[in-house]
Amino acid sequence: MPRRALIVIDLQNDYFSGGNWTLVGIDAAAANAARLLAAARSAGDLVVHVRHENPAPDAPFFVPGTAGADIHASVLPTAGEAVVLKHQINSFRDTDLQAILDRHGVRELVIAGAMSHMCIDAATRASADLGYAVTLIHDACASRDLEFGDVRVPAAHVHAAFMSALGFAYATLVATDDYLARTRAT
């Protein structure tokens, strides 16, 4: 049984060009996530995809039943890979994610996806709080510009701030190339 799992969070069509909530750097993040998927599949690691649907009637994105809520073609699940449907920011809240991981004896998580400042942040913190060893692949995640009062915060700064905070106490931060080189060596 695999003891390591790759979790790919919310890489869905609405985050890509033409979607309802486009992220900065999403194409590069998804390309790196696709490389991680290929490596995890080759290594026999458990792969779990998380897909978000927003049930609010006025949801700006991830509306159930729309193409925007579908997993992006670059990271589609293959037969036998779990897909966890969530309605909250935290991938563990009101889902069977932890049960899936526990059933497979997973103790180490590798996380990639979107958005850095929301679902990636929540899942990474929850994973650490639940006792998993967490590796966060920082260049396989994406964010967007935010505003706070009169301050516009560029996506690169949002991403850097959240990665910095998560790397301080919740996860080991690694670039895709470094992670893949490290896993090939083991």
Distance between the termini: 17 Å
| Average predicted confidence as pLDDT | 96
Percent helix, as a range, is 25-40%
Count up the domains.
Answer: 1
Number of strands: 8
CATH class: Alpha Beta
Strand content: 15-25%
Residue ranges: pLDDT <50 for 5 or more in a row? none
Biggest β-sheet description? 6 strands, parallel
Radius of gyration: 15 Å
> What is the number of helices?
5
Q: Kindly name the structural category.
A: alpha/beta
| Shape annotation | globular
**Helix-strand pattern:** EHEEHEHEEEHEH
Query: What is the level-2 CATH architecture name?
Result: 3-Layer(aba) Sandwich
Short description:
This is Cysteine hydrolase family protein. With 186 residues, this protein is an alpha/beta fold.
Element layout with pairings:
Blueprint: E1 4-9, H1 26-43, E2 46-52, E3 82-86, H2 97-103, E4 108-114, H3 116-129, E5 133-142, E6 146-148, E7 151-153, H4 155-169, E8 172-174, H5 176-185
Please describe what this structure looks like.
Strands 3-2-1-4-5-8 form a six-stranded parallel β-sheet. By secondary structure, the chain is an alpha/beta fold. Helix 3 links the parallel strand 4 and strand 5. The chain is about 35% helix and about 25% strand. It has one domain: Rossmann fold. The radius of gyration is 15 Å and the shape is globular. The protein has five helices and eight strands. The longest helix has 18 residues. It comes from Nannocystis bainbridge. This is Cysteine hydrolase family protein. InterPro entries: Isochorismatase-like_dom, Isochorismatase-like_hydrls, Isochorismatase-like_sf. One of its GO terms (molecular function) is hydrolase activity. Keywords: Hydrolase.
